Amino acid sequence: MLELFDYYRSSASYRIRIALLYKGLDCQLTQVHLVEDGGQHLLEDFTQKNSQQLVPLLRDGENYINQSMAMLEYLEEKFPDRPLLPKYSLKKAQVRAFAMEVACEIHPLNNLRVLKYIKNDFALSDKEKMQWYFHWLHKGFTSLTAKLGDGPFCFGETPTFADLFLIPQIYNACRFEFDMSPFPELLAINDHCLKQEYFIKASPEERLKDLVDSQPYAG
After folding, report:
1. Predicted TM-score (pTM) of this structure
2. CATH class name, domain 89-197
3. Of 16, 133, 140, 147, which shows the fewest CB atoms inside 10 Å?
């Protein structure tokens, strides 16, 4: 059975939860809290599983896979039903490029450990920290808008990696009250995705409901 070590607010974990639900895969979800206990991802037991000390982390039997894009590629190859990549090579490349813009150019600059570092080590105010956050969101969303294919998803009638990366990033942007009004095309895709059951059930709010009666990660 698959096991996903995740954190309910982690946008990278959110991507994998969507994929698992879309493909209808059974998977145990194990919460690794990034804030409580000084960060459960820093515990020795978790570090032995993932030396990068980040979530998500996917376990399949005795094997562990880190990095959300690698996980999605693995799931796509092992469980090809309900594919999340287009059939043809050019479209596949376009979808991957779109997803990687989020994974490599937006998300790393705005994730928790980077925001903590620039605030604490460079003594930035909360206002300056959010200026940093919003700057990279605006540049990233501007570029992504120019690369969209035909709707209602990012590239056509079915979801792809592109949607799995975009929707969690928009979730984070809205959580920090970033003005999305200059990006109506992205908002339209977001609205469409959030009407789909697999996106709804994968959301941080739904994941948090599941955690009420579960045991926290103890290492």
Report:
1. 0.93
2. mainly alpha
3. 147
